[in-house]
Amino acid sequence: MSKSKPYRNIRSAVIHGGIYGDEQTGAVNTPVYLTSTYQQESLGQHKGWEYSRTGNPTRAALESLIAELEGGTAGFAFASGMAATTAALSLFASGDRIVISNNVYGGTFRVLDKVFKNFQINYTIADSSDLDALETALTPEVKAILIESPANPLLTITDIAAVAELAHARGILLIVDNTFMTPYLQRPLELGADIVLHSATKYLGGHSDVIAGLIAVKSAELAERLHFIQNATGGILQPLDSFLLIRSIKTLGVRMDRHVENAEQLAAALCGHQAVRKVHYPGLTTAPGYEVNRKQAANGGAMITFELQEGYDAGRFFSGLRMVALAESLGGVESLACHPASMTHASIPKEIRKQVGISDELIRLSVGIEDINDITADISAAIEAAQL
Ligand SMILES: *Cc1c(COP(=O)(O)O)cnc(C)c1O
Asked: CB of 152 within 8 A of CB of 103?
């Protein structure tokens, strides 16, 4: 990272960033180092690699890439997004409290509620899009705020820079799960966040074929602590998966451009559809978070959530899809549709779901990079089939 780079734009950084190629052979791609251990020349003398849980050159190339893309100084790769989240939450100790936004990923809520709570690391749920409500939740035992923007599934926007200010005024950490935007569209560390998390399973992987998680940080102290946790707890990403992610990230720019272009067109089409009651998309000028999002991100991303009018059934909608797949997950090249209440957010109790506006009628779309006319035609046909 110290060496000055021969490019300035993230469109080039996704291709040339991090540790690029292989110095030894000139190969333009980082080799896959399928090795668990490394031969040492003599006691205490080695080339910087000892054991692949601690460090592996292929993983290190990916880790330096995510650090560079997010504008951090260090990156860490994990076996899943949840392993990355778990590592970040392992920074805290019993008696600490984490404030999470009311729309965080269901698995993030679950690990706090069912695992970390057993170790007396507690959580408070707050509406992070409302800074006053968030501030009220910041009691003295709170050590971190964990947010997503846009947040799943209503695509609620939180002002990242403003929350960073609130956090830093109290000397606590801001953790941002940037899965929905990727560093191509939004860079939370540059907005003041301390830790950025990713489910790289989604847009960074982009092809629905790898489960992976990434972290990027700015501070050397956090980097050291997270590397300690990564090595101590061992939830690392394997070399082959690290290679696949590096390969995928090279096309992140072109993929995101198409994802967003398609999402903007589909959101406009849904807004004009007589069978659609409400469209949640932060790229719409009418969206409640539009102005804040525009300030902190390149555009509204490519996730759209919508509700059908009365007289239309969500179950029938999903059965009516032919090209768009009914599936969990998001961020792949193919368009996916899901039902948050019974799928991604099923681990959140129904009362809490209701409180935060996740109705049984919500439909979430991960808009892929197929031809927009094919996507629109499939969605329109499914809406027609949904009529009772
Ligand atoms: C999918 C997801 C996760 C969890 O990541 P896995 O790779 O499935 O473990 C975390 N946060 C968000 C926003 C996600 O969409």
From this structure: yes
C-alpha to C-alpha distance for 281 and 289, rounded to whole angstroms: 9
Q: Can you tell me which atom of ligand 1 is nearest the CA of 180?
A: 13
Listed as ranges, residues in the chain with pLDDT below 50 are 1-2
CA of 329 to the centre of ligand 1 (A): 8
**Partners of 45 in the beta sheet?**
42
Measured CA to CA in angstroms, residue 261 lies from 148, 258, 370, 383 at distances of 22, 5, 11, 22
What does residue 173 show for φ and ψ, rounded to 5 degrees? -90, 145
Catalytic positions are 53, 105, 177, 202
**What one-character DSSP code corresponds to residue 90?**
T
Helix 220-233 with 81-89: angle, nearest 10 deg: 120
- Strands (DSSP E) contained in 168-326 are 173-177, 195-199, 213-217, 276-280, 303-308, 325-326
Closest residue by Cα to atom 5, ligand 1, is 81
pLDDT per residue over 306-364, tens digit each?
Answer: 999 999 999 999 999 999 999 989 999 999 999 988 888 887 788 888 887 888 889 99
Cα-based distances in Å from 315 to 204, 270, 368: 30, 18, 21
Six-digit token string for 229: 């946790």
Three-state secondary structure of 152-207:
CCCCECCCHHHHHHHHHHCCCEEEEECCCCHHHHCCHHHHCCCEEEEECCCCCCCC
Instruction: Please provide residue 220's backbone torsions phi and psi, each rounded to the nearest 5 degrees.
Output: -65, -35
Sign of the C-alpha dihedral computed for residues 177, 181, 184 and 185 taken in this order: negative
CB 192 within 8 A of CB 160: yes
* Size (the chain), residues: 388
Predicted confidence at residue 74, as pLDDT, reads: 98
pLDDT at site 351: 85
C-alpha distances out from residue 380 to 102, 270, 274, Å: 31, 9, 11
Question: DSSP code of 41?
Answer: S
User: Which residues, in sequence order, are bridge partners of residue 156?
Assistant: 151
Q: Match 């890439």 to its residue by tokens.
A: 65
